[in-house]
Design goal:
- The protein is mostly helical.
- It has three domains: 321 residues, no CATH class; 95 residues, no CATH class; 124 residues, no CATH class.
- It is built from 22 helices and five strands.
- A five-stranded mixed beta sheet has the order 2-1-3-5-4.
């Protein structure tokens, strides 16, 4: 037993090295960090200077942690570097917590669970995005770890999670209800859960307008329930599978997910009920909240993976117990030949028939390093001397394919993130190069453009500040206020969608007012000065003429 634990710990260390190398390739690999970062930055700067920010759009803990960490760095991007360092540390701690949780729930499959979480595209995406999702994840995982160990620290870490993001409050409810149902000392449990949860309730009630962009409560002014979130969630969780086979993998995964709930409940009802409440609450929150976003996957993906693994374990146990002949069949030489041929075929297809779009292609040097993670997982999962070789070969094919698809999806997501709002930076640099005292520009999110142009935010006008006028009347309004330039960017495009969040943005951020400038052509009163292209993003800069 000691040898096996030592062996697993060595494999854990090897997997950690591959994980760190993998995320290290993408850190700071973008033109503009996630726009939410600039809100965290503003709050951290105020806190570092001994000032309490006038308003918070989010719970305050991430900014409170970012402020002292950023004091360790120098330069105009000190908050960005601090956020990136903070996220990498949170990722490493989460990595260990995932492993520890897996060791508690299913010791033999702990590394499989860890591997699936560590290399999932949503994990890599959120480790390198300088925002709070990975931080709330580490506190949620810590709470779950203490909950499994039946330690009261579970409620304190759940409280910390709730003060990073609102999803953290779901953990308080989940573990509180599970403990209330399955443990004695009901009054003590209620008091502990109440103490952990009252702070986020008071914060939500007392928070002010929310700064740039307004409070989150303004999103409910024209409310549409986000009913497509459940579909959106599963697409984010399993979206790395090829589109042609997505429905098949979704059906299998969802069946294992549901069956895993049953298996886990029969094994340990308290744990299963807490996990089910947490998952149901997460889905309900984001059905009520009108913002679907792949960034949220990392917060709950581990929960779904636990149930899927329990489902796979239950299904495997059933087959093993009810059809012992299967093992003898798989030991026959013919099946080994077939499985080896399949392994070679899959390898050849992955090497010589890559996906169509460049951003999804996997570099083979990268894939060979990631292939090490497959060997680590299989080493833990299968003891070759006890299993027919065909099982090892089939598992290798399965894991190798998933690794390739996950790496492809990760590349695609990082490509999108690399260029997300890159046009804002290009517009800022153009404005800085052409700026003269008194110039004003209409542009969305002045905070970003001010950061990269080093020009005060009062030189910018947000589209939301413009009156809803036709182009000639809008030109007259701008001219009378001595506005010099107006920028249309890819982020301002109008398009048909059933996505409630994008519908809200199109209706509430002034995009429709400047929509006529998206054709990239001079118009009466609006002279096209510059067309900017960076990756898939575009921007058009117009001069407000005096005519």
């Amino acid at each position: 037993m000691k040898y096996r634990v030592l062996n697993q710990n060595i494999l854990f260390g090897m997997l950690l090295v591959v994980f760190m190398w993998h995320i290290g390739r993408f850190v700071n690999d973008f033109y503009v960090p996630e726009s939410d970062f600039f809100d965290f930055r503003a709050k951290a700067m105020a806190l570092r200077n001994g000032e309490w920010p006038e308003d918070f759009k989010r719970p305050p803990l991430y900014a409170l942690i970012l402020a002292p960490i950023s004091s360790l760095f120098q330069g105009v991007q000190r908050e960005l570097h601090a956020a990136e360092a903070l996220n990498v540390v949170a990722a490493v701690v989460s990595f260990w917590l995932i492993y520890a949780i897996g060791r508690h729930l299913f010791p033999r499959f702990a590394l499989v669970f860890l591997w699936a979480w560590a290399f999932h595209p949503s994990t890599v995406r959120m480790v390198v995005k300088p925002k709070s999702e990975i931080m709330v994840t580490v506190f949620i995982l810590a709470s779950i770890y203490f909950f499994l160990k039946e330690k009261r620290w579970a409620y304190f870490t759940a409280f910390l999670a709730s003060m990073v993001r609102y999803e953290g409050a779901l953990v308080i409810a989940a573990i509180g209800l599970a403990d209330f149902i399955y443990r004695p000392r009901k009054i003590r449990t209620l008091a502990t859960a109440f103490s952990a949860g009252i702070f986020i309730v008071l914060w939500t009630v007392l928070q002010s307008n929310g700064g740039d962009g307004g409070s989150y409560f303004s999103y409910f002014n024209e409310y549409k329930p986000n009913l497509q979130f459940f579909k959106f969630f599963w697409q984010g969780l399993l979206g790395f599978f090829p589109p042609q086979t997505f429905k098949l993998f979704f059906g299998c995964s969802f069946a294992l997910f549901v069956y895993g709930m049953i298996v886990h409940y029969r094994k340990e009802a308290r744990q299963a009920v807490a996990f089910m409440i947490l998952f149901a609450g997460f889905i309900l929150m984001h059905v009520v909240w009108p913002m679907p976003n792949f960034d949220y996957q990392v917060i709950i993906a581990w929960n779904v993976l636990i149930f899927i693994i329990f489902g796979a374990m239950g299904a495997g146990k059933y087959v093993y117990q009810h059809d012992a002949e299967v093992r003898r069949w798989l030991a026959k030489p013919g099946y080994l030949v077939i499985s080896f041929a399949l392994f070679i075929l899959v390898t050849a297809l992955l090497m010589f028939k890559p996906v169509s779009f460049p951003q999804y292609r996997v570099e083979w040097s990268t894939f060979l390093i990631l292939f090490a993670s497959i060997a680590i997982v299989l080493w833990s999962l299968l003891r070759v001397e006890e299993q027919p070789p065909v099982i090892f070969m089939m598992c290798a094919v399965f894991f190798m394919s998933i690794t390739y698809w996950m790496s492809s999806a990760t590349n695609g997501q990082q490509y999108d993130f690399r260029y997300s709002k890159a046009e804002f930076r290009m517009v800022a640099e153009w404005f800085a190069a052409h700026y003269e005292p008194g110039d004003q520009m209409v542009a969305e999110q002045p905070t970003i453009i001010s950061f990269y142009s080093a020009i005060a935010e009062d030189a910018f006008i947000k589209p939301t500040e413009l009156p809803d006028l036709d182009p000639p009347a809008l030109h007259e309004w701008l001219k009378n206020r001595h506005v010099t330039y107006i920028a249309w960017m890819s982020a301002n495009r109008i398009f048909a969608t059933d996505n409630a969040w994008f519908q809200w943005k199109m209706d509430n951020r002034g995009w429709k007012i400047i929509h006529f400038l998206g054709n990239g052509q001079s118009q009466p009163g609006f002279q096209l000065l510059q067309e900017i292209t960076v990756g898939p993003r575009k921007a058009y800069i117009y001069k407000i003429t005096s005519e």
